[in-house]
Amino acid sequence: MRNPRGTTRVALVEDHLLFAESLEIALGMEGYQVRRVPLPDRPSSLGAVLAAVLRAQPRIVLLDLDLGPHGNGVRLIEPLTKAGIAVVVVTGSVERTRWGECLRYGARTVLTKTSPLNDILATVRRLNDGFPVMDRVAREELIAEWHQNRVENHEARRRLEDLTPREREVLRQLMQGHQVREIARLNVVSEATVRTQVKSILAKLEVSSQLAAVGLAHEAGWRPSDA
What we know:
This protein has 227 residues and is an alpha/beta fold. Helix content is 55%, strand content 10%. It contains ten helices and five strands, in the order βαβαβαβαβαααααα.
């Protein structure tokens, strides 16, 4: 259903000041009521950000994902959509699985920050006029990619849990960029011992190189602190 632009509230959740100001000015010139939601100077919970957005009572939210010390903006999507707000993600991320996650939780579409400003304005215009803003097939493909990635990461986490405490420590040091010789020196063991541990890590993770093991750990969200 079309709404007069002068009555449509658009909220911006964006920690990049210049980009937020550009959107604010452009949307204001289009006739929308624009509110840039201020992010606290100090790190805070996303709950506080969510509350600030809801107080603005927007019909449409343009949401960044990387909100610095405030966390991952994807966690705001579902509660906003459940409140009847149309969420458009505008992000610097080009990870398709991340886009799929946003769509899975209710975002209407995902745009990159490198998109022409006119494309962002056209998306807001179509939403306000009650039209779809994303091809259904493209949407389903991205959600399917996210789901497959989630399954693969779950399996990778399971393999990582099979590592012994010693192997986890070696993997942690590999993730920090240490070579076998350095790891042996740091742990006061022989290089042969470390190579044996690395070989066991590769076998358990079902990869063929140290680089692949490190990549798998990063992709699965495993952090050195998990050791």
